[in-house]
Design goal:
The complex is a heterodimer of chains A (about 210) and B (about 350).
Chain A: H1 6-16, H2 27-32, H3 37-60, H4 70-92, H5 94-100, H6 102-105, H7 111-121, H8 126-156, E1 158-159, E2 162-163, H9 173-176, H10 178-207
Antiparallel strand pairs in A: 1-2
Chain B: H1 22-44, H2 46-66, H3 76-87, H4 94-108, H5 122-133, H6 174-180, H7 184-189, H8 191-197, H9 209-221, H10 228-247, H11 255-260, H12 264-271, H13 282-302, H14 309-326
Helix pairs in contact in B: 1-2, 1-3, 1-9, 2-3, 2-4, 3-4, 3-5, 4-5, 5-14, 9-12, 10-13, 13-14
Classes of the chains: A mainly alpha (about 210), B mainly alpha (about 350).
Amino acid sequence: MSDPTRSETLFRGVWRENPVMIHMLGLCPALAVTNTVMNSIAMGMATLFVLTGSSLLVSTFKRFIPHEVRITTYILIIATFVTIVDMSLAAWTPGLHKALGAYIALIVVNCMILGRQEAYASKQSVGRALLDALGTGFGFIIALVMMGAVREILGSGSFLGVSLFGDNFEPWLVMVLPPGGFLALGFWLLGLNWWTQRRERRAAEGAA
Amino acid sequence: MSMKLPRLLVTASPHLKGPASTAKIMWHVTWSLLPVWGVAIWWYGPSAFLVVVAATAGCLLPERLFGKRGSLNDGSCVITGILLGLTLPPGIPLWMAFVGGFFSIAFGKLVFGGLGQNAFNPALLGRAFLQASFPVALTTWPAGGGEWWRLRGDNFALPLMRGDPADTVTEATPLALMKWDRESEAAQALGVDDLVFGMTGGSVGEGAAIVILLCGGYLALRNFLNWRIPASIFLSVAVFSGLLHLIDADRFASPQFMLFSGGLMLGAVYMATDMVTSPVTNRACWIFGFGIGFLTIVIRTWGGLPEGVMYAILLMNALVPFLNRWTQPRVFGTGRKKGAPA
């Protein structure tokens, strides 16, 4: 197996191994706070920051972390960054902080972040770990915005708070409620898998 | 070389085949729904016709797009569409009925693998989706009767847009009267006659309990539905609401009111007996029906909504696999007596 190039490391997490749509990781925030595009972006940025910061620290100190307590150490590092994000959001954007609520603190237990530390950052150089964290974080933002867009357009008739259909729009109430998160995720998974399968079938037919 | 018929024909079971096929049963059920629909059209005018047509169109589209080739011909989509249309208020915008139909088939049936694979009744799933999405439109009940040609609401609202509530004469359903206004006397003063013959506000197909019963009776005679399911639903509704009525006649409505109001008839005869989502053993059918009746009374009496048949049936649908496994009959010659050595 040849080593992936730098750009492969960066872009792998963005789409081909998208944390939400392909790996199905980090579903708790993806289902819970994507009722508007703004919330999705905020949650994605917060996660990106935590992921990049903790990947940086974990890959820097990978030689000093005892193997037996590595998960605990990762969690401590992640929790440090989550606390920074939590306090910064509360100070700068109290409204957003209120909208995201407990889900900011819950970034600590986002298995996507822990997974990247365990599977990648603890084994790779600092530069590679940073690229991987950035790619995965952006992939997470993209996935969250995809879900937030469906839910906000159908559920509130707006995009980033801008009304799309005028005053007479009938909102699909279910889409901003918790079931809407599952429905939106289902729509996307259905569509993406259908598209992937079709592409593979075409490729197989073309090769045959 | 000439074809020679073998002396001994060895085939896999089943060896006895009845004349009924899936398509034949489905089309029979469809025909039996036409009188119910006819009464609705007579009572609610063109709106009833349009809503059911829109819901059916919404059901046919995903089956045509994503379903197996030829699966439109078995008629199951048409039944889902008509049933969904019959559970909607006559005044709702047609695009909502279409969306509901699309959801019913695409997410209530096709994602599970098509006919026979779905755990929940597709029509009710579509209605539950609409109820959760558009609670206002789904609880606006236009009055029946009057000028036949008048639309009972803004049926032709543009897609994604709210219907214009002007010019709509609305009327509280008997169950809503009982629930919100505590007017159980007013509701009961309506009389069981009115409920039996459908002269109340409500969904398209909720009226005319007598027509639904007759059509259901025909289907039960042809053995296209298991009569134990509606029978046990009616029995448990009568028993539970009767007990409550005996305890406090002022607070709890009478059993005949509970039996003939709302969507109970349509639900019990057509929704609960859906062959795919109802149990296969007769014992399980009794339990299934009792559960639906009990939950209906619980939701109607203490729940947050005036009508509970839809959620009662969906909840019991979820239990069907367990009921089936629990009530498997013992195969003759197998099994052990209790306490027998292993």
